[in-house]
Structure formats: structure tokens, C-alpha cells
Design brief:
By secondary structure, the protein is of the alpha/beta class. It is about 35% helix and about 20% strand. Strand 14 and strand 15 form a beta hairpin. Helix 7 crosses helix 13. The longest helix is centred in the N-terminal third of the chain and has 20 residues. The protein is globular, with a radius of gyration of 21 Å. InterPro entries: Beta-ketoacyl_synthase, Ketoacyl_synth_AS, Ketoacyl_synth_C, Ketoacyl_synth_N, PKS_Beta-ketoAc_synthase_dom.
Length: about 425
């Protein structure tokens, strides 16, 4: 039991898909090498768009066919990550996972390929909403793609999870929220295990245009690999990306009883919403500060116990400055090193919290801090050790992973090595 008398939650399997590659080994090696996965978008035309780069994942089945839309893309990446995590864990090999599915994913919507198909069905008639409804009638594939909770239901059926799957969307904190839900279900004694997945595949025209209209995206198109620049003076916005991560969570006693290899534990979670603005966090950092403090307190630790912080670190001028402010408020002058995986993989949105939690566990496993690349010109306003450009060997005991979402939805996780 932990300091609060709750079951300790172990991680016994990790699966990863990012622009850096497929699988934990490939991703972690590339991350420590400081490799960028950002590239020019070829999935759809980018003429007249201000941003033409992203962290895309090229799936094997797309080599000979049309690109997948977001929902089947999320499904495919989630399956790949879960299969790797379950194989490592040894749970659910018989297609019957002994716990619930907690899925973090983006909102489902009808995308432009669907709309073009509707237009073809209607041509040359004038298009009004009733006409679109009539044209979509009987189009079963469209309904199944856009139906509420369809991804979670398909994944639950595939992996044999128990009970109704829980699908959550908390903006850029979504992946961390999925992990938190799984952890808390185990801590409450409702289950001995949970499957936590964060996945996003929304590098598509409409999403790109929306973020561009918010002036949130980097427009450093001439050199994609140098575009994501968290904490650096010339940073100008984040780079959209996609991917998936899966953590197999189970009570430490359950994992040890079956002889499982313990990859680490999720020691604490903290959340706090500020309700300040639909897209912006409060620049005073109050909710972010409290989320960090809540996570440390939930873990039964003090700020001095944190060895490293896996930053939210998007590369937008406002977010990075606010995260620096929050770090100083929580840790004072003795702040631990902090680095941003987004400098290499971009911002994977709904998947980010899960992917970065996975990288945090790997940092503990190998006692290595991944770098923040593209750190050419330090920003005087950023007073932290951001592990610039080169990975670093370090003593890593407890890691805090930060996830700060649009609308002030903030979740922080504390991950640690296996207890003695």
C-alpha cells in the first residue's frame, strides 16, 4: 500500500507509436539521439496554408492506398501500441484483459473526404443541410466512423477488456487523464488492472487550419526538423503531430504475484482546471502550479524528491513562459532539469500525456534525460535547465510529467521506479 493506504499502481507494459517510429525501442533510441520526426505534409495539399509541416505517422497500409481519416487512424495506432504493451506485460494474451479500458482520444468528426463524397452524391443539386442528411442516409460506414464511442467499443472488443470502455477528451491533457482514470480505478479497489491508451490522428486539413487561425502553429516551414523549439528564444508555435501510447496498469501486488516485470509505478496524479479561457491558460499559472503541487502531494513526496520534469513544453511563447513561472513557484531556485519531447515528436495532442508518461518511465529505467533539441538561442525569460540539445545521464528516481490542455485542463503525473 502507498502512503495513503491505497494499492500501489505498477506499469508492466508500454507500447509506442510516434513520428519517430513504431515500438518502444525505436522511439526511445531516436529520442535520446535527438532525432526530429517533423516533416513536410504529403497526406493532403498544403497550398496557401501558413503551416505545411507536421509530425505524421505513415502507416503500413497507406503505402498502397489512400490516407486513413482520423478515426481509423486513431484506431490503428491505438491497436499497435496496445499490442506491444500487452505482449510485454503478459496480460490479456488470450484476448481477455482482466480490467477496463481507459481511452484518451480526440473528438470524432466528419472530415473533408466524407464531405467530398457527400457532394459527389448530391451533384449537381444545390447543397443544403437536409440534402446532406438525405445523402448520408444508409451510409453505414460513415455512421460507424463518426459514431460516439465507436473507437472505444472496437478496442474493448478486440482486447477483451471488462465493463464499458471509458473514452475521455480533455484537450492536450487527454492521454494523462486516461492514465489517471486507470490509476484511480485500481486505487479504489475496483479492479486489479487497467489498460490506458492515449491516441491522436488529427493531422488533417480542418484541424491544421483551426490551430493556424489561433496563431498557435509554427510557420518555420523551410526546415521542418528545426521548427519545434520549446523554451528557445525564437520559438513561434507548436507543431501538430500524432501517435499513440499504451500503458498496462495493475496493482503492484497483482503484478508481483504473477511474476511480472515492473517497469515503474504511477505514484501520484494531480489535476486542476482554471476555466480562464477557451484556449488559453491563465498566464499567472495558478491552476498549473496547483496541478503540480497536487500531483506531488498525491505521490506522498516533496518538491525536492522530483529528479526530472517531462515538460508540457509546446514551443508557444505563452505556454513555455507560463510553465517556467510554475516551475519556479513549485520548486524555487532548486528546480530539477526539465525537457520537452515535443521538440522531437511535435505536439501529439490527445496522445501527448500518455506518450510523455511512457518516455518518463524510460528515463527512470535507463537513468537518462532526453534532450530539448533546437535550443540554439537561450531565452532570458526561461531560467530552467532544459537539457539543451544533448541527452544526459542522471540519477532519476521520481519524474513529474506535465500535461496542460486548452481551456485550462491540467493533469500532472508522478512516475517512479519500483519500490523496494
Amino acid at each position: 500500500m502507498d502512503h495513503a493506504g491505497r494499492p500501489i499502481v505498477a506499469v508492466t507494459g508500454i507500447g509506442l507509436v510516434t513520428p519517430l517510429g513504431f515500438g518502444v525501442a525505436q522511439n526511445w533510441a531516436a529520442l535520446l539521439a535527438g532525432t526530429s520526426g517533423i516533416r513536410r505534409i504529403t497526406r493532403f495539399p498544403t497550398d496557401h496554408l501558413r503551416t505545411t509541416i507536421a509530425g505524421t505517422v505513415d502507416l503500413p497500409e497507406e503505402a498502397e492506398g489512400a490516407p486513413l481519416t482520423a478515426t481509423p487512424r486513431v484506431m490503428r495506432m491505438a491497436v499497435m501500441a496496445a499490442e506491444e504493451a500487452l505482449a510485454e506485460s503478459g496480460l490479456g494474451a488470450d484476448g481477455a484483459f482482466p480490467g477496463p479500458l481507459m481511452l484518451g482520444m480526440p473528438p470524432v468528426e466528419v472530415e473533408w473526404p466524407h464531405r467530398f463524397e457527400l457532394a459527389r452524391r448530391l451533384a449537381p443539386a444545390a447543397v443544403a443541410y437536409p440534402d446532406l442528411t438525405e445523402a448520408a442516409t444508409g451510409w453505414t460506414a460513415l455512421y460507424e466512423t463518426a459514431a460516439f464511442a465507436s473507437v472505444g467499443e472496437h478496442l474493448a472488443a478486440r482486447f477483451g477488456t471488462r465493463g464499458s470502455p471509458i473514452a475521455v477528451t480533455t484537450a492536450c491533457a487527454t492521454g494523462a487523464s486516461a492514465i489517471q482514470l486507470g490509476v484511480e480505478a485500481i486505487q479504489r479497489g475496483e479492479t486489479q488492472a487497467a489498460l490506458a491508451i492515449g491516441a491522436d490522428g488529427t493531422v488533417q486539413p480542418e484541424a491544421l487550419i483551426r490551430f493556424s487561425l489561433l496563431s498557435a502553429l509554427s510557420t518555420r516551414n523551410e526546415d521542418p526538423t528545426a521548427a519545434s523549439r520549446p523554451f528557445e528564444k525564437t520559438r513561434g508555435g507548436f507543431v501538430m503531430s500524432e501517435g499513440a501510447a499504451c500503458l498496462v496498469l495493475e496493482s503492484l501486488s497483482h503484478a508481483r504475484a504473477r511474476g511480472a516485470r515492473i517497469l515503474g509505478v504511477v505514484r501520484g496524479a494531480g489535476e486542476k482546471s482554471d476555466s480562464f479561457h477557451r484556449t488559453r491558460s491563465n498566464p499567472n499559472g495558478s491552476a498549473v502550479i496547483q496541478a503540480m503541487r497536487n500531483a506531488i502531494a498525491d505521490a506522498g513526496l516533496t518538491p525536492d524528491d522530483i529528479s526530472y520534469v517531462n515538460a508540457h513544453g509546446t514551443g508557444t511563447p505563452e505556454n513555455d513562459k507560463m510553465e517556467n513561472l510554475a516551475m519556479r513557484a513549485v520548486f524555487g531556485e532548486q528546480a530539477p532539469p526539465i525537457s520537452s519531447n515535443k521538440s522531437m515528436i511535435g505536439h501529439t495532442l490527445s496522445a501527448a500525456g500518455a506518450i510523455e508518461a511512457a518516455f518518463s518511465l524510460l528515463a527512470i529505467r535507463d537513468q537518462m534525460l532526453p534532450p530539448t533539441i533546437n535550443h540554439d538561442e537561450p531565452d532570458p525569460a526561461i531560467t530552467l535547465d532544459v537539457v539543451p540539445n544533448v541527452a544526459r545521464a542522471a540519477k532519476v528516481t521520481h519524474v513529474m510529467s506535465n500535461s496542460f490542455g486548452f481551456g485550462g485542463q491540467n493533469v500532472c503525473l508522478v512516475l517512479s521506479g519500483e519500490p523496494g
